[in-house]
Amino acid sequence: MSVLSDRSAYAINPILEEDELAEQLDRKGKNVVKLNRGDPPVYFKTPKYIIDAYVKALREGKTYYSDATGIDILKDAVQRRYSKMYRLNIPTDGIIATAGISEALQFLNDVLINPGDKAIIFKPYYTAYIPRLKLAGGEPLFENYDEKDEWNIEIEHVMESIKRMKANGKMKEVKYMLITNPNNPTGTVLKKSILEDIAEIANDNGIFLVSDEIYDEIVFNGAQFTSISKVAKGQPYMILNGASKDFDATGFRLGLMLLPESDRLSLELRERLRNFAKVRLSVNTSAQYAFAEGMSNEKEHAKAIKYMVGEIEKRVNYAYGILKRNDYIEAVKPNGAFYILPRLKMDMLKVKDDKEFVVKLLEKEHIQLTRGSGFGAPNHFRVVLLPPKGILEYSLNKINDFCESISK
Ligand SMILES: Cc1ncc(COP(=O)(O)O)c(C=O)c1O
């Protein structure tokens, strides 16, 4: 018998699955193009005014543990951002800083999930949602983003599932419903009408809503982003956000759990989450000063985000144009974040699944992608579209050539 816990086997991340093979190839001098990690600072430097604030904080000796839930000036900056962007008042107690959304997901599941409980998760999902839920003893109840409706939510299906669960007396087990908007891996910005339906369903059935809005400013091609706060009608909900994407600072490891409402559940959650935060003492103190400056210096942020989103829009559309020439795949055009999730036309290709596709592509063309099945979307693959046009042109043409070479 192994001394290891059974649940430890749930800790997998498909995004990093081919790293070892990529490293081996790199060691042989193959120069793998890595389009698997959504890491903006690799291609867009973290803005200088944020770096300066970080260095200043370090020089001033802000290297101690801070308040477990975050420093005051970070919370002030969050309040101002949400008030300005969404006319949303978030009480100071409703803000908890975490070590990235990655840690927020751990807290979310640990605070809500008892063994056997369920969470409604939409496929394709961001990879970390599933291990975090399972490690807490929970099970996902899958609903779908609908590829035929540009990856919006299949509302009717959600309503039918809930009706079925109600009839079987299973609703009590459902602890939360998690949406990702804009979405990773599809790059979809959800329609406002869909979000209104989701809020209504959650309200009618007493389901706690969680909205991962980490890409809320990375929206383009004319799309309009709607925060869950705009459609929630007094019901308890949580927004997840952080420094990683809009502020181009993945390595700061700073996330935010936001509980704007003051109903009983929200108050209880705040208290428990505060205790969770205390157990691990603090998040990165100097990085919090930098993140606070990132949000507070609106003029500099506006410049930085405008440039980054403008570039991302150009790169995504350019990449989409190249992938469209490929007869062996089909892709929905993204309008947010910086990913695309094309579908492989498996009946035209000589590979058994998306895993074999990404491994063979890596071995033959030295391009590293992520298999769609890792996001709950078998027969798809995800490409990170952050690199400049030259790299995208080179890699996406390689993908197209590779598809041709394995065609039936
Ligand atoms: C939708 C989504 N949520 C959360 C994360 C992780 O964020 P963090 O860097 O804050 O842990 C990512 C990272 O790619 C993401 O795409």
What's the tally of helices?
13
Mean pLDDT metric: 97
Could you name the ranges where pLDDT drops below 50 across 5 or more consecutive residues?
none
- Bin the helical content: 40-55%
Distance between the termini: 46 Å
**Could you state the order of secondary-structure elements as H and E?**
HEHHEHEHEEHEHEHEEHHHEEEHEEEH
Ions and ligands: pyridoxal-5'-phosphate
Question: What's the gist of this structure?
Answer:
The chain is an alpha/beta fold and 408 residues long.
Explain how this protein is built:
- The protein is an alpha/beta fold and 408 residues long.
- 42% of the residues lie in helices and 14% in strands.
- The chain is built from 13 helices and 15 strands.
- The chain has helices at 19-27, 48-59, 72-86, 100-112, 129-135, 155-167, 192-205, 228-231, 264-279, 285-296, 298-324, 354-365, 389-405; strands spanning 33-34, 95-98, 118-123, 139-146, 152-153, 174-180, 208-212, 237-242, 255-258, 329-330, 339-340, 343-344, 367-368, 370-371, 381-384.
- The strands form 4 sheets. It has an 8-stranded mixed β-sheet with strand order 2-9-8-7-6-3-4-5, sandwiched between helices. It has a 3-stranded antiparallel β-sheet with strand order 11-15-14. Strands 1-13 form a two-stranded parallel ribbon.
- Strand 4 (139-146) and strand 5 form a beta hairpin.
- Helix 3 runs parallel beside helix 10 (285-296), helix 4 packs parallel to helix 5 and helix 11 packs parallel to helix 13 (389-405).
- It is globular and about 60 Å long.
- It starts with 18 loop residues before the first helix and ends with a helix.
- 48% of the residues are buried.
- The structure holds pyridoxal-5'-phosphate.
- Pyridoxal-5'-phosphate is lined by residues 38, 100-102, 126, 180, 184, 212, 214, 242, 244, 250, 255.
